[in-house]
Structure formats: C-alpha cells, structure tokens
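pasting for ref
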Amino acid sequence: MNAISVSRGVGLCAGLLAFSIGCGDSGPKNPKTYPVSGTVTYKGEPVVDANLNFQPAVGSDNAFAKTNSEGKYELMTFEHGDGAVPGDYRVSITKYESPPPPPARPSMAGYVPPPRRAAAFSKNLLPRKYSNAAHSGLTAKVVAGRNTFDFVLAD
C-alpha cells in the first residue's frame, strides 16, 4: 500500500463520515404549518406595507406578514410563506409612515456632519386599537388546509 492510496482512503472515510452526520436528525422539527393569506383594507382602500402579527392563544409560535401594494399578505412562522401552526390567534396590524429620504449630500469638501439626534419615532397610520393584539378585536382560527382572513379596519 502506498501513500497515495492511504491518502485517498482517509479522504473517502472523512467524506462518508461528514455525509452520514449531515443525514442524521438535526434536532427538533418545527410544528406543521398551513398557508394563511388575506387582504387588509382601511377606509375602503388596501393598506400597503402593513405589518401583521398573529399571536397564538396557546404556544409561542407567532406568525408575521407584511402587505403588498394590493393590501394582500401571506403569513410566515418559520420560513417565508409557510403559514401558521393550527390554533386560535389574536391579531395586531400596524402601518408606520415611511421615513423621509435623506437630504441630498453636497460636495464632501469641508462637510461637517450635524450632531447626532435620537431617532424619531414613526407614526402609526392606522387606529391605535389595532396595534395591540389583546385589544384589537381581530382574531383568526387557523385550521389544517388553506386559510384566508380578510381584515376590514375601521376608526
């Protein structure tokens, strides 16, 4: 047996060991989720860039979404678009105003940055009651299969 065949044998064994470790059980599995989608409207218009938070009555697997340009959303719990674990949820919805764009920067020659200020808080553009799942009055019951929840917000 020469040094090259020993080296190949060691490399092959190391590769098989790494492959077998990668194929094993890597830990606890996430609970089963089901697709959840819908639309958010306020004053008859779709709410763009709203943040939804589904808080479970039991457990700790919150689900989240952000609405698109048509006010539509798809929930995620563990990964994009996976939906939510079956169960009862309380829902909160917020939409914060976009920060103003940064000012145009003139030539950097002689530029002295302004003093740092605390970040301004963004204003929630939806009625305050919807920002707290415990008081929003919005609920959802996710079941096995496809789920659709449309939220029509009012003042």
